[in-house]
Write a structure and sequence with these properties.
Helices cover about 55% and strands about 10% of the residues. A 3-stranded mixed beta sheet has the order 2-1-3. It has helices at about 25-30, 35-40, 65-75, 85, 90-100, 105-115, 120-130, 135-145, 150-155, 155-160, 165-170, 180-195, 195-200, 200-205, 215, 220-225, 230-235, and strands at about 10-15, 20-25, 50-55.
């Protein structure tokens, strides 16, 4: 692969979120990440004598400096996994590699993250694995997640930020069946109270029919410290 970028007819300035992060031959980027950059450059013309600005807007979860560092590593044939040298944490590298369609790098990131899954990071790593389509990492994180104390999950902002689908997955998982139902119900209340405007409604509770509602309703006041919500009761 030619990496000198001497052909000015193929030079670009890659601008990410308003920042010019590097100047390079666009053909090199296409060789690094053909699916992503091939689509980006497919309708562009590069006949100008001066480098052309190409702008990208990254999703909020993709860090600009990480994207810059990863592309520079690949252009220079450097190891993107040398965290001490690059300063890029594995989780950020996984998100960025996944965004650019770099499946091999994303897979290696996931393999390394599997080795460091614990109860302190399993909530985050399960969500990360799910968003980056890394099922093996997801299973490893889930196995740790269901070993966590429900009371601790009820105070974990990372867990309470789970979407409705993610939270429903957790509640319906077979690994949760051995847990005390009062603790499960307390966790439901914590999750709903984390964002009352979006969560305190009938839709949430229609997915929870496996619980013994009659018994749990008797303890609702002690769990919430307030009177029953009419909307909640109508869903039981």
């Amino acid at each position: 692969m030619e990496r000198d970028g001497k052909d000015n007819h193929h030079l670009i300035n890659l601008v990410i979120n308003g920042q010019c992060v590097l100047r390079t031959n666009y053909r090199l980027l296409m060789q690094i990440a053909p699916d992503y950059f091939g689509l980006l450059f497919s309708q562009e013309s590069y006949t100008e004598k001066e480098p052309k600005d190409i702008s990208l807007i990254l999703p909020v979860d993709v860090d600009v400096s990480t994207a810059k560092r990863l592309l520079e590593n690949l252009l220079n044939s450097e190891d993107p996994f040398d965290e001490h040298k690059t300063g890029v944490p594995l989780a950020q590298l996984l998100v960025t590699a996944n965004h650019f369609g770099l499946a091999e790098i994303a897979g290696k990131c996931a393999e390394r993250l599997e080795l460091i899954v614990n109860r302190d990071n399993c909530c985050y790593l399960w969500k990360l694995a799910n968003s980056c389509d890394q099922p093996k990492l997801g299973r490893r994180a889930a196995s740790e997640l269901f070993q966590c104390d429900l009371h601790s999950l009820g105070t974990s902002e990372t867990f309470l930020e789970y979407s409705r689908d993610e939270f429903s997955w957790f509640l319906s998982h077979e690994s949760l069946t051995a847990q005390n139902e009062k603790d499960i119900f307390s966790l439901i209340i914590s999750w709903c109270q984390f964002d009352k405007g979006l969560r305190w409604n009938v839709d949430v509770f229609t997915t929870l029919s496996k619980l013994h509602w009659d018994q749990l309703v008797e303890d609702l006041d002690s769990l919430t410290g307030k009177s029953h919500d009419p909307l909640l009761l109508s869903s039981l």
